[in-house]
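Reviewers asked in the last cycle whether our approach scales beyond single polypeptides. To address this, we selected a multi-component target totalling 918 residues and predicted its structure end to end. The input consisted of the following lines:
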Amino acid sequence: MRSIPVSPEAGGGGAVLELERLAVTFATAGGEVSAATDVTLAVAGGECLGVVGESGAGKSQTFLAALGLLAANGRVRGSARFQGGELLGLAPAALDRVRGARIGVVFQDPLTSLTPHLTVGAQLTEVLRHHLQLTAAAARRRALTLLERVQLSDAQRRLGQYPHELSGGMRQRVMIAIAIACGPALLIADEPTTALDVTVQAQILRLLAELKRERAMAMVLITHDLGAVAGIADRVAVMRAGRLIETGPVASVLGAPREPYTRELLRSVAPVSAPASAPVAAAPVALALEEVSVAYPLRGGWLRRAATLRALSGVTLELAAGEALGVVGESGGGKSTLARAVLALLPLAAGRVVWLGRSLGTLTPRELRAARAGLQMVFQDPLGSLDPRMTVEEIVGEPLAVHRPGLEPAARRAAIATMLERVELGTSLLGRYPHELSGGQCQRVGIARAMILEPRLLVCDEPLSALDGPTQRQILALLAGLRRESALTLLFVSHNLALVRQLCERVLVLYLGRMMELGGTEQLYREPRHPYTQELIAAVPVADPAIQPARLARARPGEPPSPLAPPSGCVYRTRCPYAVARCAEQVPAWETVAEGGAGIACHRWRELSGA
Amino acid sequence: MLRYALRRIAVTVPTLLVIITLSFALERLAPGGPFDQEQTLTPAVRANLDRLYGLDRPFLVQYGRYLEALAHGDFGPSLSQRDFSVGELIRQGLPLSVTIGLAAVLLAILAGVPAGILAALARGRAGDHALTALAGLGIALPTFVTGPALALVFGLYLHWLPVAGWERGAPRYLVLPVVTLAIPVAAYLARLTRASLLEVLRTHYVLSARARGLGAARVLWHHALKPALLPVVSYLGPAMAFIVTGSLVIETVFALPGSGRYLVQGAIDRDYPLVLGMVIVYAAFTLTLNLAADLLYGWLDPGARHE
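The resulting structure, written as structure tokens, was:
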């Protein structure tokens, strides 16, 4: 047994939560499955313990077990003491006086973790009235104070709103308000920032760090994001396959990890320089977008006005053959719309997409179908983008059946086998169905399906966001390898700037459907010119506890406004710290600032960069 | 919520108009006419009859006249039951049919939904298996089998309830018909409720509510039940249609003087106004209850109001 003493530097007066030899098992049809084994750790008041590891490492189940929240087939052994009292085996009524009152929990997905049919106010006051026996009026007053404390804008109005009316970041603030409502001694945050945009992630982590400090709470931050841990944790516990493999102060675990596995986790988030810029100028233009706009008409009803959502406005750019362009920005920025517009998967409101000299909009359906063989896509949801009733062989072979129906069965099988090899999957998977594969394997099948026709353009729409850190790194290496082999032109959409940096030579920054900045990756990451690019880069978590807390403390507030009512002039001005009157009056024109199509749309970029 | 309600009501009116138009047209398109049945009429008598009832006029004129009369609440004369207007026939039978239908729906909800909740809470245990098996039986057996079987047991053997007939509205006579009609709907509702509640109990927001220490009862009533009832409410619409068609069988099995028999007899006799009147009344009944189900759905799911 490995015993981990409470760290002396925490100093918040003894352990709040102590797990001792905690083990979690699940009874399944195939026998007993272990989710966590022999977990012993402690968290002191005022201390934040970061618990890291890949999904399936048993991080969440360990703490759910301590709170008596395991699924019906789960079983827990060992000991979990909270403020000296044993939690395991406690009667439900006694446990319910601890949960929600003295221990607050924040879950990963703030949309699915708030009850959809209850207003924010109802869910917040419910906890206050239930645990603190407040009157309705007192609970409402307290709820308002709490929403203001978690910096939810327009708190009074939010009380009457339903979860679906709020953005992801706002919902997570509400979740945090509920979790801290009764002044808990311990806050357990289970992947609190995973589903959020990078800018909002930074805001939420900053809020959690502030709350921990001002309330001297103990905090457990369960996450796969080492950057989040570097930003707010005092100590780190690394879990793998249900076991605790390394614990220690954040500086030593992230700075000088003892275990090879911890080093591997760290490598997967280490900043990597962009690939050396390919000879872009020499290569011919493969793909050109000219003033492309996409609008989604929102259906009006009998008693409602119809509205138009401008998802993309005036996007103009050129991609050289063999080039990789990253498209970044927050959700709602138009990244996925751009990916679909390039493949002619949705109608353009204006402009045109020119592929190898021909405008896709002018092709006949038959010509477009033939052209699609050279234009392929990899989707975000690895499992959801594969037909559950088709085997791997059928999925990967389907494009051949459609575009090369004359192919001999033997030749087709050979092509499928070769393709699987290229995506590093064994031919033993040929007869498997998607649900029998891991997320990474599913995404490899998706890539094999896209690549089997040897396309010239591959559009990847958030291909990595559903995957774990190490798997992301492997898939990224695979895409880079395929590029080298096949002279592939790549359009890579991602909200993860660190991943884009590793793969792409150029990056396009979108905000509310408009181009903010376009430039070479290294230039853009080192000296971002546009204030929005600067905000995005500043929010990228860095797994270095020496600098990340200070970076978090500088996180800017604010979220994108509704794309249905974009601000006048420069759409970014409502969040821009440098906005002046002119920004509200005039839409900034696109300016080319360097060779190779680098450009920017900002009235003030010259004076701001000191030129 | 008010705007949602107005939208739903605004959709109901044109739906009813479409039903009236289609039924009117289909009836005229079907071969045969009201006076083709018994002895052959002389052409002169035939022409007189057609003129009397306006059947010699062009289709659109007949349709227009019918709508005009309908707007004044006049369903026209019955062609097969002389001296009675369709309105009078409907007024005779409808109250009983509506009473049976509504009582059956109410009973099905009151029995089926709690049974489904209990089964979900006892998931995997004996009570769950028993309820699920019973519900399967209730769905599988047709009402013309359960009806006589219940009459046999509770009427003939046990003498608890009358087997059939209708004595001036004594509620005892309604028990067996209502129960028979409610059984399949209750069984289906129970299964639907069970499956839906089990799904909701697995959601993150229920886990999150439990983590807030609200207690099992409060989590069930305040957080899980409303969303779990959404599919149940969606099924209430189709259930109404089942109850309406089912009541035709029930009224025959239990010899009840409801309005269902007019629909069957009217169709055989090509009694255009009678069939049309019945279709309109039943459609209005179904649409009204569907509307109620829609409004209930909107109340349960704030998201639906914005779609």
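Chain B touches chain A through 28 residues (CB under 8 Å). We regard this as preliminary and will revisit it once experimental data from Aim 1 are available.
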